Structures are given as structure tokens and as C-alpha cells.
Amino acid sequence: MNIKRIQSAFLMISISLVLVFFSSCSATKKVTENNSAYLFVYFTGNAKTEEAIRFAISKDGYNYYALNDNKPVIASETISTTGGVRDPHILRAADGKTFYMTVTDLQTANGWDNQAMILLKSTDLVNWTSSKVDISKVFAGFKDVTRVWAPQTIYDAKAKKYMVYFSMLQPGGKDIVYYSYANKDFTALETVPKQLFFSPTKGSCIDADIIEKDGKFHLFLKTEDTADKGIKVAISDKLTSGYVLKEEYVDQTNESVEGSGVFKLNNSDTYILMYDMYRKGKYQFTSSTDLKNFKVIDENVSMNFHPRHGTVLPITKAEAESLIKAYGWFATEGTVKAQSAAIKQNNVIIDIENKKMLLPVKNGTDLKHFDPEFKVNQGATVSPSGAQDFSKQAVKYDFEMGDLGKMSFDVEVAVRNNPSLTGYYADPEILYSNKDNRFHLYPTSDGFHEWSGDYFKSFSSTNLVDWVDDGVLLDLKKDVSWTDVKAWAPAAAEKKINGQYRYFFYYTGDAKIGVATSDHPQGPFTDIGKPLVAAKPNGITRGQIIDPDVFTDPVSGKSYLYYGNGFMVGVELNDDMISVKENTLTVLKPDKTFREGTEVFYRKGKYYFLWSEDDTRSENYRVRYATSTSPLGDFNIPKDNLILAKDPSQGIYGTGHNSVIQIPGTDEWYIVYHRFTIPKGITMGRAAGYNREVCIDRLYFDEEGNIIAAKPTLEGIQPVKR
Q: Are residues 276 and 374 in the same domain?
């Protein structure tokens, strides 16, 4: 054995490894110095279409533009075992030119349990290879794992390997942050997961994110203790052990948060800590120079998309240009904004592929002299400027965004009277008041997460098109003693009592029916102090006590209350209109399509009963009807009784929960209903069910009195003349 030869070979190998290490560090440092932009990697929500990897780009780390029209850049079904991915994390490798991405393999439509993560690799940020890692199958000690969440990657310079860290849950335990090393090709995990962080409270911890500063590793994570939820930081001198948790929260809000991500601004000492305020549908940005003290900087931040749990990677100008070339930077929200008060902002449609934009405007807008009032961010320009003639054809606009390039759009402006109200509203009730000769509209206040609205507003009009916001008529938190949640699906009645018009407002509050009274149709209303209906009829065990409707029979003068989800109840009201005649309570029997939203009206000897089928979260939510010879009588259900349904050709979905109005003194009728918001609703999944809009269209009858199926429209109706 030649000892000197062996020693010489060992020395050469050692020198080579050192050179490789310093070469890698040099490459990373060089790229870092050249970084001039940022890549934001994120997903958008819990719907199947939202659980996918999306990209956005920024020049300054504050203002972000979605790439690829905010659509996925990788199809989830091609890389995952579940069909969905969440929590994307991206890392630049030590060589400066390779990129690693990790994502949670989870589609929440199937529940919140999962066993796998996805490892991805790229050399250009556009083309990615992927590998599935099922923890339950790879590691025998974790075969019963029920959650594998939020994997992230960091380079371990000491081990010269890429460390993947993530949280896992096993039956009977807590969510614990573990780590494992990836193999050389970044296609698998090659070491048995070890616990990385030991919580002093023994509570669950998720969504870990590690960044190194001044030789110390800062581990940001979400604590999941019952009374101790938020983002904290643990610090260690070592990457894989010794983390000591600081007591202070670093998130700067009292709202629920998760998915912290930390990155350093290019050529700066400032760090950005961002996190997902998931219950509010918002992202918050904070800044710090010491990773101890953080200040909210939301006023400096803009995004034309709504991200969930993502990460930001500093990139070079060349990398940014490559991404823009591959995907384009213009997205359907907020890249530029037409600010004119005449525009119905929720309904602006941008067709990226065909470079077209539709601006829906309110009734009465002068299309011959209209200025959209486009606003663009600093450094960007738009032309032409000022008022243009949109009455005959679209107008071409050029949007220039400096380094991000130029895009041109043909901008069309059209009067759209649907939706009828500005903003998100649903479950509309309509009333014509003989006291002020105006129409009054009473909807559910919508747009609140999981149907959590707690007040009602009223709107009035003389022509069914131009509506005035009359303000809040009943606030559960201020005006009602017996409930303060779930203000849903109102109904209203005008009744002449002792020669004076009185108004009665029936509503759902926390799955009970309440009633309030007023001398004016727009309120304010005074609640009677207790529920009008708080229990289901005998024998009814399913459904909810919601969706009241009130109907006064023009034949008898008697008034009736209807309600129910999963069952339909009718009961006569006493003369005071705030109590019921219990002995008249009747469980009515529509067909099996009945879900909720009863509406009753009378025309030419027939009582019409309308209801909604399916679920308000479904694109197939729709309206059917039956007739009767009595307000509480048996139903005659026509063979073709579907009278309102979606129209995909117009992008109209989720049409349901209606009311009906007759123009006084005529046989002219209108149906008032809600639909998914356009254009976003059909892509929102479950959230479409609480982001709805109120619309009005004509309702016609044939000679036999059958309702002719109504056609939902984008244009809406023309102003009614009386």
C-alpha cells in the first residue's frame, strides 16, 4: 500500500470539494448581486381549479402581476396523486441556475388528509420535472401518517445536501415539523424524517419557513395551540437542531394567519415577512431589518390576484423576461383599472387570449363620450386618454409597463342592467309600496366568508333599473337581541292597519325566522324581540328554518308565511302580522326538487309557488314552480316546470332564490333572482355561493297561465314606465 499516494489522492479530492463548494457559493453570490425582480409562487383557494401552482412577477418586491392570466402554470392532475397541490415553495440551488420547488399533494374536495408531497426541478423556471413522494409508503415508521403539509427546501452547506422540511400528523398526536434530505436528483427523500422543532407547549406547529441571517437560522412557523395561534420565530445556530422559540408573535394582526414566507429585498438590508390571512381572503406584508421587529406595509403592496400560502424568489432580469415571454404579465384583475364610477367593477371581463376587454356600465351612460379613466401603476402608461366614442365599436388601448412590455386591447363598453345592484347581494325580495309609489328591494348582504353577513340593506327605485341605496334597515348586532349572526334571505310585506301603511320585515337569523316592523318601507325596522319561528314542525328532522316568504291573498285578504330548507311550511299570520295561527300550520308537498327559497304570488285565479332546486354553491341552482287553488292547498306540478336556469353561453350560472313583482295595474311581471358573480363566479368553487349578484328579467305566461321559462340575461331590462 502506497500511503503517500493515498494521502495525495485524498488531498486532491478535498481540494476539489472545496473548489466545488466555493464555486457554488460564488455562483449563488453572483446571481444574488444580479437579481432585479421577484417571482411569487402561490395557489388561490380550496376549489379544484384553485389548488394549483401559479406565478406572479414583481420589479420591486411590492407590486405583483399574475402571469398566465392567473391560471396554473403546471396542471395539478399531471404531477399529483390527489389532483390538487397547495403551499408551493421555491428555492434557487447553490449552483445559481437550478431551481427546486416543493408542494403539498392535497385536493381538499376529498378532505384534509394526505400522505404525499411533490418535488419539482427546473433549470429555466418554465419547464419542470416532478416526482411524487408518498411518506406512508416510503418510510415504514410513518405508514399511518394522516397529514403531510407545506414542504419547503433549504441547502444544508454542512451536509452538502438539500434539506426538505415539512409538518406531519400521526393518529393521536400533534402536527410536528420534520426534516429529511433529498437525493442528488431531487426526485426522492433518502433519509428517514427526523423531528426538526420541539414545541415547548407540545402543541401543533405547521407551515415552517427557514431563513439564515448573520449565521443564525430563523424558523418561522404557525403555532396551533387552542389559545395560542399565530406566527412565531425560533432561532438556532444549527440548521437541524437547537431551535429556541421566542415568545412574541411576529404577525401584525389579530386575524387568523398561516403560510408565512420570508425573503430579502434585492440590494437591501430589508426583509419581507408575508402571510396568508386565510379567513379574510387577504395577504399581509410586513418589513424588518432585524427579523425581530416587523411593520405592516400593506399600503405599499399591490397584487392583481388573491394568493394563498406562497413564497417569493428573487430572480434576474433575464429570468423575468423569460417568464414574461412564456406566460405574459397581464391578468384579469387590477393590472390596470378603469376607475369611472359608471363601470360595474365586479363584472369587467378581460379576454387575454383574444386581447379584448369589456367594461359594463350603468344605465344612462353616454357611450359617445365616455372616459374609462384607466389607472396604471407608477412607470406605466396608457393611451389614448380622455373620452372616446364607444357607441359603435371597440376602442384600441395600448398599455405599456416598462420592462414588462406592452399589450394592446380592444376595449368595448356596453350598458349592462344586470346585475341590478352594485356589489354582492343575494336572495332578493321585492315589494311595491303604495305609500311612496316606489319599488323596494331587500337582499341578503353577500360577499362575506361562509355566509357570515349580519345586516340587511334596502334599495329603492321608480323604474326597476336605477336603484338608490337606502342604507341599513336592520343590523343584527345592534338591533336584535336574540341573534347576531347569519342574516339571510329576507321577505317583506306592506299592510294597511287602522288606515295606516305598516311594513313587516321577515328574515333569517341563525336558522330562525324573525320579524321587525316599521312605518316606512326603507326602515329603520324594530325587531319584536324574539324569533317568530324557532322550531321545526312535528315530524320534520331535516333541513333548516330559513328563507321566509310572505304573501297576502288578494282574494281573502289573509296573509301567509312560508319557510324552510329541505321542507316547505305554510302558515297563516294573525292580523298583527307578527304572530302565526298555529292551527293552520301546513307542511306542503312540492316534488323532490325542492330545496329552499319559496316564493308565492297570485295571478288570474291561480296561486303560484316557486322554489329553488340544488344548492346555492352549485352552478345548477335553479327555479321550478307549481300552481294551486289555495294558499295552503295541494300542488299541480307542470311536466315542464323549470323556469330559470344557467346559461353557459353567456357565462351565467347559479340562477336561483327568486322573488316576483307585478307592475301595478298591469299584467307585466318580472323575476328577481341571484346568480354567481360574473366573470369570476364559475371559477371560485364553494366561494361562488357567497359571492352572488341580484338580477331582474321579464317573466311571461302562456294563454293557459303556465310560466314560460325565463331567459337570464346580461343586459337586464329596460326602465319600467308606470
A: no
DSSP-derived 3-state class of residue 194? strand
DSSP, collapsed to helix, strand or coil, labels residue 320 as helix
Q: Which of 362, 225, 272, 433 is nearest to 715 (CA)?
A: 362
Domain termination site, one of 395, 415, 435? 415
3-class state of residue 716 by DSSP? coil
Active site residue 547: no
What's the DSSP call for residue 110?
G
Tens of pLDDT along 628-650? 999 998 999 999 999 999 999 99
Give the total number of structural domains in the chain. Answer: 3
Cell numbers 316606489 correspond to: 438
Instruction: Answer whether residue 41 is part of any domain.
Output: yes
Q: How far is CA 328 from the centre of its chain?
A: 24
Q: Is the dihedral of CA 541, 542, 546, 550 positive or negative?
A: negative
DSSP state of 189: B
363 & 480 share domain? no
Q: Pick the catalytic residue: 207, 596, 599, 697? A: 596
Burial group, residue 490, by CB count within 10 angstroms (0-12, 13-18, 19+):
buried
DSSP 614-683: S-TTSTT-EEEEEEESSTTS--B--SS-EEE--BGGGTB---EEEEEEE-TTSS-EEEEEEEE-TTTGGG
CA-wise closest residue to 581 among 634, 547, 532: 532
596 counts as catalytic: yes
Can you give the pLDDT at residue 589? 94
Within 10 angstroms of residue 650's Cβ, the number of other Cβ atoms is: 13
**Are 564 and 700 in a shared domain?**
yes
DSSP E strands in 353-454: the ranges are 356-361, 374-375, 381-383, 395-400, 406-415, 425-433, 438-445
CATH classification at residue 71: 2.115.10.20
Domain of 370?
A: 337-415
Distance between the two ends of the chain, CA-based, in angstroms? Answer: 111
Query: Residue 197's CB: how many other CB atoms inside 10 A?
Result: 22
Strands of 498-605, DSSP E: 500-509, 513-518, 526-527, 549-552, 559-563, 568-572, 586-588, 596-603
| Catalytically annotated residue among 258, 427, 549, 693 | 427
Q: H or E element: which one contains 135?
A: helix 135-138
- Tell me whether the omega of the peptide bond preceding residue 72 falls within 30 degrees of 0, making it cis: no
**pLDDT tens-digit series, residues 53-109:** 999 999 999 989 899 989 999 999 999 999 999 999 999 999 999 999 999 999 999
